[in-house]
Write a structure and sequence with these properties.
By secondary structure, this protein is an alpha+beta fold. The chain has 7 helices and 6 strands; from the N terminus they run ααααββαββαββα. About 35% of the residues lie in helices and about 20% in strands.
Length: about 200
Amino acid sequence: MSLRYLWGAEGREEGRSFLRFIIYVAIGGVTLGVTALLLALAIVRGFSEEIEEKIVGFGAHVQVSSYVQDDPLEQGTSLQAQLRQMDGVSSVSPVIEQPVLLRRSREAIDGVVLLGMDQFPSYLETRLMAGGTTFPGDGGRPGLVVGQELATRLGLDVGDRVTLFALQQGEAGMAMRGQRPRVKQFRVRGVYDTSLQDIDEVY
C-alpha cells in the first residue's frame, strides 16, 4: 500500500508530497526501531552468556549439598561415582565451602568464604592477575588464591602470609559454643579477577 503511494501514479500526483513525507518518516522509524531492538537483544544475550560463563566457570552448573545447610555429605566417593554415571555429567569434583575470618594484620581482617577443592578451576587460571596455581611447600603453610576486590580491601599481595580462623561446626552446621576456632596460616599464591564483585570480594 505504502509503496504504491511512494512510486505509483498516485504518489506523484500533486498534493501527495506531504503524505509521501509521512510515509518516509514512518518507514524510517520502523526500520530504526527494529534495528535498535535487534541490537539490544544481541547485547543482552551476549552479556547474559558472559555472566553465565563466569558463574559456571567459578562453580558448576549443578551443586549437590546436604539437605541440612552446612552439614557435610556423608556418601563421599560412592556419591561421586553415581553422579559420574549420569547422562550429561562431564566432571565431578568435591568442594568444601566454609565461612572464615581472614586476617592479614590487626587492622586488616574480614569475613570471607573459603573454598577447598582438589582441582583448580580452569576458568580461574585464565583470570589470574598475579601469581599462579601451583603451591610449593612453605614451612607447612598451604597456599590460597584470592579475588582482586578482597586483595585490594585487605592490601593483600602474592607472597603475603595470612591467618584464617574457622569456627568449629556442630550438629546442623551450628558453631559449637565454648569451642576455640581452628587457626591456620596460609600464603597468598595468586590473585584473580572475574569482574564479578560478589565473587571477587568474598572468595
